[in-house]
Write a structure and sequence with these properties.
Elements (H helix, E strand, L loop, with lengths): L4 E4 L3 E5 L6 E4 L4 H4 L11 H25 L2 H6 L10 H27 L39 H9 L4
Antiparallel strand pairs: 1-2, 2-3
Length: 167
């Protein structure tokens, strides 16, 4: 008789047997929706299909763009292609795209600089969530002292703690 030992968790069941190797069964949350039976046959997932179609479309569009941009007009006419955009768009569209990305990044950084308060503002130290610490001395060595609630340490205490030993 085979002795089975199972280690169960919410995600997997590990089965050890003397006659066969250890097998690992994973329960995939997507399997419930796909209606997979006990046979374990898995169908293609939609994310894999979309990824495949997206990669093939990208490669195909790149090849068409490069053929349009670099093949001479006589070769295009010989294979039956007579209508296509003007060649200056082969440089204009990528240049516009790059400039748009650079300007969007510069605008984002500029807006973040504008929304940041100046270094002399007290809002860089205090805000609506600031809380003063409790009155108990945190440096005291009491055994029964409870853990303090979360609070901010004042800038004056920080300066004393950090700069007191410098002379």
């Amino acid at each position: 008789m085979e002795d089975h030992y199972y280690v169960s968790s919410p995600r997997r069941i590990l089965s050890f047997s003397e006659r066969r190797r250890a097998t690992l069964y994973f329960q995939d949350p997507d399997d419930k929706a796909s209606g997979v039976g006990a046979s374990g046959d898995h169908g293609l997932k939609t994310s894999k299909i979309y990824g495949f179609v997206g990669s093939v479309t990208t490669i195909l569009a790149t090849v068409i763009f490069l053929v349009w941009a670099y093949i001479p007009e006589l070769c295009l006419h010989s294979i039956g292609v007579f209508y296509y955009p003007n060649r200056h768009w082969a440089l204009t569209i990528p240049t516009y795209a790059k400039v748009t990305v650079v300007l969007a990044l510069a605008l984002y950084v500029g807006l973040k600089f504008l929304s940041t308060p100046p270094p002399t503002s007290l809002s860089t130290i205090f805000d609506e969530f600031s809380r003063e610490p409790a009155d108990s001395d945190p440096l005291s060595k009491q055994v029964d002292q409870p853990i303090e609630t979360i609070s901010d340490i004042g800038i004056n205490k920080i300066n004393v703690l950090m700069l007191n030993n410098i002379k």
